[in-house]
Every structure is written in C-alpha cells, then in structure tokens.
C-alpha cells in the first residue's frame, strides 16, 4: 500500500444563492489518494451540473488509469455529453484541479484558475498555473503598461483563458513534486482568495473548516462560493 494520505473538504455558498463548486476524494487499490475540485460556471443549473460531472468523471477515470491526462479527458467529455443531451446546459463548464498523492510525491493536472497550494516548512507555494487573465495583467504591470492598482481593479482580471467545457482544451497545467515530511496540500476554488496568502498559510495548519469559516467571516459583498480540500499524511 502507498504511504497513507487522507483528505477532508469543506464549502460554503458565500453570498451566492447557490453552490457551483464540487469536490471528490477517492483511492486506488494501492492506497493512492485521488482528489478533484471543480468551480462551475454557466448559471445555477449549468455550473453545478458541470462541476459535478467533471469531478465524478475525473475520479472514475483516475481510479483506473495510471495517468491523469485520461481523467481530464473523461471530465471534459462528460461535460460535452451533458451539453449535447440537454441544450439548456449550452455554455456550461468549470475549472478543474486533480491530484494523485502517494508516498512522497504529488502529481497534478489542472485547467482554469482553481489553485493548488503546498504548505511545507512553513511556506505556502502555489504549484499549478493560473489560467485567468490575472497573470497577463501582472506581466503588463511589470512592463510598465499599467499600474498595480489598475491591474487589481481590471474588469477582466478573473476572466478564464480556458475551462473544461467539452471542447478542445488549450491550456493544461501538469506537474510533479517531491514532498517533504509534514507537507500539506490545499485544493481550492478561487473564492478563498479573498484571504491574503499569509492568512491562508496560517489556516492551512488547521482543520479545513476553519479556512472556509475565515473567508465567510470577512463578509465581503458578493463573496463567491468557497470550497477547500486539505490533504495531509495519516498520523
């Protein structure tokens, strides 16, 4: 069996009237932990359906296949099938971040802007790429093309450059990382990013519900759905 990892999740709708995030945990026969999180888009029904279809298809495929690419393809195909089955779901989609955890190694694959963080030796580092417009705007700030304040307030800041929508995927982030003793992983929807990373680093040491509660306690107007998955070694 793989060295033991376990996970727990928590979520809140925030200031939204409905929840469009979904998450799932599972295991392979060798004990490898599988985790998937998706942040849906496309309205109440569409976003919730897309995220659920994606994580369920991802988990089923990742349980059987040693590579994460087929699991992402399965998630994308499930959404495409859902759209073709019912025209009211046209335009639905989601972000997706999925990981495999076994021993001292994490493998991940992601599309969209849902972050995967690693807390190790007190430092919180994002592992996966951000497929929103935020990195492009940050690059424009570095080149002197706009101010930091303009970038932070830009209306396109959170627009996705790619998402899982049943169509050909243009941006896919893949990676592998060795993990040291005591490492923890956080998979989140972007609703948690109303908290500064320094606060996230503190909360990543606590049960995952504390992180979600801290976001909601800020009572930000228009707070997006909040979902977090915390993965850590069995003790």
What is shown here, in short?
With 235 residues, the protein is an alpha+beta fold.
What is the terminal separation in angstroms?
16 Å
The average pLDDT value, as a whole number, equals: 93
- Helical content (DSSP H or I, runs of 4+): 25-40%
Number of domains: 1
Number of strands: 11
Give a short account of the largest sheet.
6 strands, antiparallel
**Can you name the CATH architecture?**
4-Layer Sandwich
CATH topology descriptor = Phosphatase 2c, domain 1
Structural description of this entry:
The two termini are 16 Å apart. With 235 residues, the protein is of the alpha+beta class. α1 (43-64) packs antiparallel against α2. The protein has helices spanning 43-64, 69-85, 134-142, 148-153, 197-203, 208-217, and strands at residues 5-12, 21-27, 33-41, 93-94, 96-102, 105-111, 116-120, 123-126, 173-178, 184-188, 226-233. The protein has a single domain (5-233), classed as Phosphatase 2c, domain 1 (4-Layer Sandwich), CATH 3.60.40.10. Strands 2, 3, 4, 5, 6 and 9 form a six-stranded antiparallel sheet that branches. It contains six helices and eleven strands. β2 and β3 form a beta hairpin.
Which terms summarize this structure?
11 strands; 235 residues; single chain; alpha+beta; five-stranded antiparallel β-sheet; six-stranded antiparallel β-sheet; Phosphatase 2c, domain 1; globular
Topology:
Blueprint lengths: L4 E8 L8 E7 L5 E9 L1 H22 L4 H17 L7 E2 L1 E7 L2 E7 L4 E5 L2 E4 L7 H9 L5 H6 L19 E6 L5 E5 L8 H7 L4 H10 L8 E8 L2
Antiparallel strand pairs: 1-11, 2-3, 3-4, 3-5, 5-6, 6-9, 7-8, 7-10, 10-11
């Amino acid at each position: 069996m793989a060295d033991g990892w376990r996970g727990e999740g928590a979520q809140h709708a925030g200031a939204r009237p409905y929840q469009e995030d979904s998450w799932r945990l599972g295991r392979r026969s060798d004990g490898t932990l599988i985790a998937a999180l998706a942040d849906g888009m496309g309205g109440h029904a569409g976003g919730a359906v897309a995220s659920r279809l994606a994580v369920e298809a991802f988990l089923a495929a990742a349980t059987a296949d040693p590579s994460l690419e087929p699991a992402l393809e399965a998630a994308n195909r499930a959404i495409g099938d859902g759209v073709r089955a019912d025209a009211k779901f046209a335009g639905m989609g989601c972000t997706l971040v999925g990981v495999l955890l076994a021993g001292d190694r994490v493998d991940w694959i992601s599309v969209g802007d849902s972050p995967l963080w690693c807390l190790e030796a007190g430092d919180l580092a994002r592992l996966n790429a951000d497929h929103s417009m935020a990195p492009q705007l940050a690059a424009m700030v570095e080149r002197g093309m706009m101010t930091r304040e303009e970038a932070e307030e830009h209306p396109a800041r959170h627009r996705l450059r790619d998402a899982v929508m049943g169509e050909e995927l243009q941006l896919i982030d893949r990676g592998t990382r060795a993990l040291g003793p005591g490492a923890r992983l956080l998979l989140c929807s972007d609703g948690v990013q109303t908290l500064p990373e320094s606060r996230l680093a503190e909360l990543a040491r606590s049960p995952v519900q504390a992180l979600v509660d801290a976001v909601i306690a800020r009572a930000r107007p228009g707070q997006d759905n909040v979902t977090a998955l915390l993965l850590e070694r069995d003790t």
